Amino acid sequence: MLGYHVLMTSRHHRLDRFLSARLQMSRSNLRLLLAAGRVRVNGQVERDRQRRIGLFDAVVCDGEILQANRPRYLMINKPAGVVSATRDEHHPTVLELLPRGQREGLHLAGRLDFNSTGLVLLTNDGAWSRRLSLPETGLWKHYRVSVDKPLSDEDVVSFSQRMWFDFEQIYTQPARLTIRSSFEADVWLHEGKYHQIKRMFGRTGKKVTALHRLAVGRIQLDAYLAPGESRELTQAEQQTALDPEPVE
């Protein structure tokens, strides 16, 4: 079934190509199959062989379920020392924190550094994860950060201004920093460039000693999830995930 696997990695595909790969059937027989009304898509008889099929369209032929994927959205409380990846040869991955039977088809919707902790989102819905990462979506990401030197109002001002990153040859977007205590702050930003928060604090002469993500947009890390634990997003979280969340 290699052809079927390759086919299903694309976002959409024609019904006849889907059926051909799944049923190993010739085009002439496929036409007869469709003309006879033996194929249903999302509960309705479908005769158009050029119908575009998405990952979450239910396809049934002669009562046999050929595809019945459901979109899945999970949050996980990532511990330190875990790689934000689906596969790694040297370290445990976020995906491996899930029970083996619950991993299939999932990918990460955003990453955290190896030693950073907190909210990571997992899904099998590529369109949803792409929209989460688009700058125009305007989602704030909320982090709690510990540093090695006392924070000051100058840090607040520095974060509110654009910073030049030589490596990427770009300016960062303004971020917000709120001081919680001498060595701890909350940071909100739209972006997620390479080691961005660590590099921003580096500009102010401070080293980040701990970084914990609390929220992505309106999705907040469940306070009852211990490190390494996960749960499905609620319906409300799924529906409001892409709504911009103003910084309070």
UniProtKB/TrEMBL annotation:
Asked whether the keyword Amino-acid biosynthesis is assigned, the reply is: no
Q: What class of enzyme is it?
A: isomerase
For this entry, list what GO says about its biological process: enzyme-directed rRNA pseudouridine synthesis
Sorted alphabetically, which Pfam families does this protein's record hold? PseudoU_synth_2 (PF00849), S4 (PF01479)
- Stretches assigned to the Pseudouridine synthase RsuA/RluA-like domain: 73-201
Q: Which UniProt keywords apply?
A: Isomerase, Lyase, RNA-binding
- What NCBIfam families does its record include? pseudouridine synthase
Describe the family membership recorded for this protein in Swiss-Prot or TrEMBL.
Belongs to the pseudouridine synthase RsuA family.
Q: What is this protein called?
A: Pseudouridine synthase
